[in-house]
Design brief:
Blueprint (H helix, E strand, L loop, with lengths): L11 E10 L2 E11 L4 E5 L6 H9 L6 E6 L2 E2 L5 H7 E4 L11 H6 L14 H13 L15 H14 L4 E5 L7 H18 L2 E5 L3 H7 L2 E5 L3 E5 L1 H4 L2 H8 L4 E4 L6 E4 L8 H6 L4 E4 L6 H9 L4 E7 L3 H9 L2 E5 L7 H11 L4 E4 L9 H12 L3 E5 L16 H9 L1 H4 L5 H11 L3 E3 L2 H15 L1
Parallel strand pairs: 3-8, 3-9, 6-7, 7-8, 13-14, 13-16, 14-15, 16-17, 17-18
Antiparallel strand pairs: 1-2, 1-4, 4-5, 9-10, 11-12
Helix pairs in contact: 4-5, 5-6, 11-12, 11-18, 13-14, 14-17, 15-17
């Protein structure tokens, strides 16, 4: 057993995890820690990486980059048997081809502690009996597993996992095939086990209401961690709309104690309202260059869109929390024609475009082309100056205003295209793009634009 009282390091520490299928990254640079005794719910739409993360924790999958640390030690050093003594998995459902009784199936949880062809010892039998009691299925011990109801089967699977005596219990959407009675019973059981035995629980959940009720810490995924906090902080309507693509109403119902997620009501933004409040500001950023700006726009309650941004980019993660709309591209990928079409459509709707001082390479150079076309079509374009750029070093005896502004943009230092980025920046300035020296100035310009329209 793992020493659960050791607080010097997390029970689970995922460091820089990247993993994908068929060369398509699903999780990118994920950092995730869980301490002993926590109950953590994993949220996110289908394909967001929840199940994959659980498989990486359990050792079924190996990360393509990064390290999974269990109890302060690289999981690769434990070996399958040792991991199975520390980590137990409760799948969505389990198909049992033979007529195992409940007691026989729960006994299989002792396999990591046994040698080949060995039988259960008295200690094994004691632990199995305790697992049956803990899962409240003692009366079912002699029943055939396949003859039980769905809820009863899930309790048996939990008991089998408990027989492993794990420090960490992983549940993969354990309530997805159960009716509401068994969903509540199962999660009440898991909560009780966590409280009474100290077992650490990580569960992938689909039902946001159940997640809010039973898990004090929620982690929201969209091919990476978007939010990691309490239910009140993670289950925020704007954030859920960004990740799930649907409007929801979040609040505490009269007489209730827990946050509830409801379909849109009369006080939730409708499609017509959504259209009327489309952002008039678009941000092109990347690599952290847009962090201060996006926070300032959000603080000023100025709705904005952002992109295209690669999954895993720090600006992408922040934009999912703060932006009205985010145009997303795959990690390590150049901007695709589909994403460019989205950018083009967004720029046709906004009044202000803000270019942050992001490094420019062949992959994102097409964004400057779209920015130039939008500027020529009358969009107010602001070029945010990078920090600590010296604009005094300009070649020529009498530098022009355009040369000074071009130097201020810092494009020469962040252009990795052989000069194409500089050429586009020069064309932007010639087309009326304006250099701004601070985030505060950007916000002021945006506010003035809005006042003029009003």
């Amino acid at each position: 057993m793992v020493d659960e009282n050791n607080d010097s390091y997390p029970l689970l520490d995922m460091q820089g995890i990247t993993f994908g299928y068929d060369r398509q990254p699903l999780l990118y640079d994920v950092h995730f820690q869980v301490r002993a005794g926590e109950m953590v719910g994993l949220l996110g739409p289908n394909g967001s990486g929840k199940t994959t993360l659980l498989r990486l924790v359990s050792g079924v999958l190996r990360p393509q980059q990064g390290t999974v640390m269990l109890d302060g030690r690289d999981a690769r050093a434990w070996g399958r048997r040792e991991i199975a003594r520390r980590v137990a998995v409760v799948p969505q459902e389990m198909h049992v081809p033979f007529a195992f009784t409940v007691a026989e199936l729960v006994s299989l949880g002792r396999t990591p502690y046994q040698h080949l062809l060995s039988s259960n010892t008295r200690e094994d039998q004691r632990i199995v009996q305790h697992a049956l009691q803990a899962a409240d299925i003692e009366p079912l011990a002699g029943r055939i597993f396949n003859e039980l109801s769905g809820g009863e089967q899930q309790r048996v699977i939990v008991a089998m996992a408990l027989a492993q005596m794990p420090a960490l219990l992983l549940l993969d959407e354990p309530t997805s095939h159960l009716d509401i009675k068994y969903q509540i019973e199962l999660l009440e059981l898991v909560q009780k086990l966590n409280r009474e035995t100290g077992v650490t629980v990580i569960a992938a959940m689909h039902d946001l209401n159940l997640a809010a009720r039973y898990f004090p810490r929620l982690v929201l995924f969209q091919r990476g961690i978007v939010a990691d906090a309490t239910p009140a902080e993670v289950l925020e309507p704007h954030l859920l709309r960004r990740v799930y693509g649907i409007n929801v109403q979040v609040g505490i119902l009269r007489g209730a104690e827990h946050i509830s997620i409801l379909p849109p009501g009369n006080d939730v933004v409708t499609d017509d309202d959504e259209e009327a409040t489309q952002p008039r500001v678009h941000v092109m950023a990347g690599g952290g260059s847009g962090e201060l700006l996006m926070r300032a726009l959000a603080d000023a309650r100025i709705p904005f869109s952002a992109g295209a941004l690669n999954i895993g980019d720090s600006d992408h993660t922040l934009a999912l929390r703060l932006a009205h709309d985010v145009i997303t591209e795959q990690p390590y990928s150049p901007i695709s024609p589909a994403a460019l079409e989205q950018v083009r459509a967004r720029l046709a709707q906004v009044a202000v475009l803000i270019l942050c001082p992001v490094p420019v390479g062949p992959g994102n150079l097409p964004l400057l082309r779209e920015a130039l076309e939008a500027t020529r079509q009358g969009v107010t374009t602001l070029l945010l100056v990078p920090v600590n750029v010296d604009s005094s070093d300009v070649s020529g005896d009498v530098p022009s205003t355009e040369d000074i502004q071009l130097r201020q943009t810092g494009m020469a230092e962040r252009d990795y295209t052989g000069g194409e980025g500089v050429n586009f920046m020069r064309a932007l300035l010639q087309s009326g793009a304006r250099v701004v020296s601070s985030v505060r100035e950007v916000v002021d310009v945006v506010v003035i634009q809005g006042d003029r329209k009003g």
